[in-house]
Design goal:
35% of the residues lie in helices and 26% in strands. By secondary structure, the protein is α+β, with helices and mostly antiparallel strands. The protein has a seven-stranded mixed beta sheet, covered by helices on one side. Strands 8-9-10-11-12-13 form a six-stranded mixed beta sheet, with no helix packed on it. It is globular, with a radius of gyration of 20 Å. This is Glyoxylase-like metal-dependent hydrolase (Beta-lactamase superfamily II). It comes from Fusibacter tunisiensis.
């Protein structure tokens, strides 16, 4: 990990960044990466420390995959947002919700199913949050950041460094993966509005690293979400289409090359966009000859 300021650290890895807050020999880890190896690398330069706490921003496997290893080696009292905590403790729920039934074999791997781990404290609300180090309280700030996942949370350290999970991704990641993963598009857009009001000294995004300003990232993340919705609405003004047909259209527009797992993830994203459009009254739904079809409403 690299030292940022005060007690705050982070690992600038190609995978999701792992954060740290170190007081004497007690360390709080902010997410634990994809697997045992990821978290071991993050803490290898610390000696004679106890990982006293874990804070998981959300339940995706690349953010909690090292939990089980850390909990075996250290005391590691673990915090996670409610609902996300259930997925961390029962990781098979992740491929189940992505697939919508008993998942296909290729969906059950370390990228979608972390090793199960214990969450000792479920977090319910944003706002001030106190963690004790060396017998003294240290005041953090919790941020509710839903959208990318159902109930993701960020955390701001007492050094005013904000760890934002996957609420934002870098411009480089957007260029590589323009169909950015989201569970609820409307919530994701509201989270971006919330981040515009956040005032911190620095910001860590899991897939992108450290930033001192995030206005340009908020704009680019918002633009790509809206762009995908516009592509879908434009297509639906031309007729009625199934989810599979819309998926094929988006694949062509973004020139996506998909493995079966990537197909499943992208399919989930397209359904998230359609769910938001349906809630906004912009699309109607019919069933024709065993096909669920979507059509744009007039004026949408």
């Amino acid at each position: 990990m690299e030292h940022l300021t005060g007690n705050t650290y982070f690992s600038p890895s190609k995978g999701p960044s792992i954060g740290g807050y170190l007081v004497k020999d007690q360390l709080l880890l902010i997410d634990t990466g994809l697997d045992d190896s990821s978290v071991r690398k993050a803490i290898r330069d610390f000696s004679d420390i106890d990982v006293a706490y874990i804070f998981n921003t959300h339940s995706h496997a690349d953010h909690c995959g090292g939990n089980a290893y850390i909990q075996k080696q250290y005391t590691a009292h673990t915090f996670a947002p409610e609902l996300e905590a259930t997925f961390i403790e029962q990781p098979v729920l992740e491929p189940i919700y992505l697939y919508g039934s008993c998942p296909l074999t290729f969906m059950k791997n370390k990228y979608t199913m972390a090793k199960p781990s214990k969450v000792h404290q479920h977090l319910h609300t944003s706002g001030p949050f106190t963690i004790e180090f060396d017998g003294k309280p240290h005041r953090f700030q919790l941020l509710k950041l839903p959208g990318h996942s159902p109930n993701m949370m960020g955390i701001v350290t007492p050094d005013q460094i904000a760890f934002l999970g996957d609420a934002l991704i870098s411009d480089e990641a957007i260029e590589k993966h323009p169909l950015i993963f989201t569970y609820d598009v409307a919530d994701h857009l509201k989270t971006l509005e919330q981040l515009e009001k956040l005032d911190a000294k620095g910001y860590i995004i899991a897939h992108g690293g450290y930033y001192t300003h995030i206005d340009h990232l908020i704009a680019s993340n918002r633009n790509v979400l809206i762009r995908t919705q516009n592509y879908l609405i434009d297509r639906l003004h031309r007729g009625s289409y199934t989810i599979e047909e819309l998926h094929a259209h988006i694949t062509e527009v973004y020139r996506l090359e998909e493995t079966p797992l990537q197909y499943s993830l992208n399919h989930s994203v397209i359904k998230a966009h359609l769910s938001t459009l349906e809630k906004q009254g912009k699309v109607s739904i019919t069933v024709t000859a065993g096909n669920l079809k979507f059509t744009a409403e007039p004026g949408a």
